[in-house]
Amino acid sequence: MTLPSQGRILIVEDSGESSYFLAEVLRAEGFEPVVRRSAADALTAFASTHPVAVFLDWVLPDRPGINVCRELRAADPLVPILFISGPPATAGSMAGSGGAFFVPAT
Q1: Which ranges in 29-103 belong to alpha helices (H)?
Q2: At 7, which helix (H) or strand (E)?
Q3: Which DSSP symbol is given to 78?
Q4: Which domains does the chain have, with CATH numbers?
């Protein structure tokens, strides 16, 4: 799977520090980051911004990331979804969610 080289990327991360860092990196690479801190806000933003990819936290304050992933996947089966945190043991659980990649938090 290849990611596009520009466009909006939805970052769903409840940590302000993590989302800020990721947004800055993506902005420097020519993307337009759209940051949301909850599942509810992410689902609304996904429908209105049509991102080219999603960076999704495994644990969100209002819903597990795996459930958000399934909802996003139902809305658009082709958009790349990358999990950006969670304990390494969750990588196996991610396989059934429709997520494309898993990058464990360190």
Answers
A1: 39-49, 65-75, 91-94
A2: strand 7-12
A3: T
A4: 7-102 (3.40.50.2300)
